[in-house]
Amino acid sequence: MRAHQVRPYGPGVSEGASHSDTSLRYEIRLHGRLHARWTAWFDGLSVINESDGTTLLRGDVVDQAALHGLLRKLADLGLPLLSVMQIAPDQSDAPTPDPS
Question: pTM for this one?
Fold first, then answer.
């Protein structure tokens, strides 16, 4: 009996894509502030506190299952989720300028 193989899916995923090729970059904005020590709990995503009282989590997410797991962790914290955006792979982890 052959084991069932789970394949990555989503935009830009080709039939022969490797695990690292399927990573997508996300920016998640939360209302409230998190300390940078949360980086380890969020699988290495950057934790960036903005001057408007929001927190950005930014970095690579390997697949949809990992994204859903990350969103469950955020729900457990109880901080309001403001946005989830897929961003360009070359966008840096530098803080974004405040739109003031």
Answer: 0.67
Helices (H), the chain: 64-77
CB-side exposure of 55: number of CA atoms within 13 Å?
Answer: 19
Q: Which CATH number fits domain 22-87: 3.30.70, 1.10.490, 3.90.70, 1.10.3470?
A: 3.30.70
pLDDT tens, 16-74? 344 445 689 999 999 999 988 888 888 889 999 999 999 999 999 999 999 999 999 99
Residue 5 is given by DSSP the state: P
φ, ψ for residue 95, nearest 5 deg:
-60, 145
